[in-house]
Amino acid sequence: MSDSSTAEGEGVNRAFAAQSDAETSSTDSAFMALALAEARQAEAHDDVPVGAVVVRNGEVIASRRNERELSGDPTAHAEVLALRDAAMAVGSWHLVDCTLYVTLEPCLMCGGAAVNSRIERLVYGAADMAGGACLSLYNVCDDPRLNHRIELTVGVEAEAAGALLKNFFATRRS
Ligand SMILES: [Zn+2]
To answer: What whole-number distance in Å separates Cα of residue 32 and Cα of residue 78?
Structure first.
């Protein structure tokens, strides 16, 4: 990540934070705290700290973290793993009434997986100006050409999620 993209990202995060003041509920913050706790565990296996939980009717039905390095699998992003676990828990790929909480804005693959799972809501923390597909570079959550749209809430605990990533990369650079 270049310095300029970081500065841009922070600008977007500030804009997101302003939006989130009005929209973020304490419930969203509580579930995001669980996703952040999951993200922190990814550092133990040298994976970029991103965490995701899926909530249905107020209950956490899946909680996963990025395992790309751990499993050597390019698709092992926290969101994909969490959606798979959620589908197992629900007994269907069709994740109606589910909300996906993720610490970082989903990429194209994960945004696509979210659309394909038909989740109702997506809540994320930090924006990803380098690869975000849910507002930053693309918005697959709200594209009239697709057959499903996802309600989006952004910037929830964005500072904590961003700090986690910043520290991870800073430690590895030094
Ligand atoms: Zn992803």
So the answer is: 13
The answer to whether 82 touches 58, Cβ cutoff 8 Å, is no
| C-alpha 84 to ligand 1 mean position (Å) | 13
138 Cα: distance to centroid of ligand 1 (angstroms) = 13
Rounded distance from Cα 59 to ligand 1 centre (Å): 23
Q: Give the pLDDT of residue 61.
A: 98
Active site residue 69: no
Q: Angle 78-90/108-117 helices, nearest 10 degrees?
A: 10
Catalytic choice (38, 67, 79, 157): 79
Q: Could you tell me the two tokens for 112?
A: 């696509």
| Residue pointed to by tokens 């922070």 | 10
Q: Name the residue with tokens 């197992």.
A: 88
Q: Enumerate the β-bridge partners of residue 64.
A: 52
Stretches where the chain sits below pLDDT 50 are: 1-11, 14-15, 17-18, 20-23
d(CA 31, CA 123): 10
